[in-house]
Each structure stands twice: as C-alpha cells, then as structure tokens.
Amino acid sequence: MSDLKILELFNTKAEKIHRSKFSEYLNREREVTCRITNDQVEVTEIGPDEDSISAAMLTLRMFIQKSDVISFKNMEDLYSRLNISKNLKDEFKSLISELNDYLDRYSPLTINSHEMRFEKLSTSEPNPDQLTNRKLMDTYLYGDYAHLDSSKRGLFESIAQNTLFAPMGNHVFVTIVNKLVEIIDRAVEMNKQAIEQLKDQI
User: Fold this and answer.
1) What pLDDT is attached to residue 34?
2) Is the pTM higher than 0.70?
3) DSSP labels for 53-115?
4) Which of 29, 88, 100, 101 has the highest local Cβ count within 10 Å?
C-alpha cells in the first residue's frame, strides 16, 4: 500500500468513527452518580451503551494495535519518511508525544488483590496500584472488546463484576477513548495537509 493510500485510509477509518452511534455519546454529557441509602447502593451511569462501545472498538483498535498499518506507531514511522515539510513532521511527532504522555498518566482507579478505589488525581507520588490510562485502556480493549487476552481478562472481570466500581471504570475508559478520538481528529487534519503536499509532487 502506498504512503498516500495509508494516509487516506487513516482518514476514512476516522470518519467511520464519527458516523457511529458511539460518537454521538461523546458529544453529550457523561456522568456517574452514586447514592447510598439504608445500606443500599444505587449507581446511575449516563453514557454510551454496551453495543455502541463494542461496535466502535472494532475500528478504534486499528489506531492502537501496532500490527495495523494505520496505528499511531506506524503512522509515526510513516511521517518520518514522508517527503513533506519539516513543520508538519514536527507537528505530528508532537501529537504522538501528547498521546503517549496522556496514556502514561495515572487514572483515578486503584486496584489490588484486597480492594478497589476511585480516588482523586494528585501531583504527589501515586499509589503503586493506581492504573495508568494506557493500562486501563488495554484492559478494556484486549480483555473484552477487541480480544480475550488472558493476561487482561482477569483485571477486566474484577472491575466489571463489581457493582459499584464497574460504572466508574467504564466512565474513565470512555473518557480515555474520547481523548483518543480527539487525537485522531487532529491527525486527520495533518494527514490532509500531507496528502496535498504529496499530490503536488506528482
């Protein structure tokens, strides 16, 4: 596949995400509320439903899995060899750094063999059991939605089977995916510029 076709394919798959039902939810208010009365716990979750998440993950995983030609890792390699302006190359490299920095940040979720907690993020040293955004994303993606990796499935089930914790985990996961879609959208605009520059050389 030519470099030009890869750029166009990335943009085509990005557009598919925006045509999905899942994308509609990203533009709405999302929240999780918890009410405890008389030893009863009631959790209310507002956000995308299970079917819309599952459908969207089939496309979104292509941007994450290193084996896919449009994955961010392969796109980074592609931009490094393209005959395009240095400014555009640097802009894309900066975008990848922003994505990696975000994924490597700690999420509010802390899980170990004894307990699960949802805690405030702070600039202080995080709890060693606190999950990074990347680990949480991989847990949902490869432990349920895209694959059934045994090393990820156990942690996913620990979250999903906890009545109180599951909606919180799902909410954080969707927030991470929302950031991923934002990064994809920005990459699309850079791809359009790269495509124009490449076509001008033909």
Assistant:
1) 56
2) yes
3) HHHHHHHHGGGT-TTSTTSHHHHHHHHHHSSS-HHHHHHHHHHHHHHHHHHTSEEEEEE-SS-
4) 88
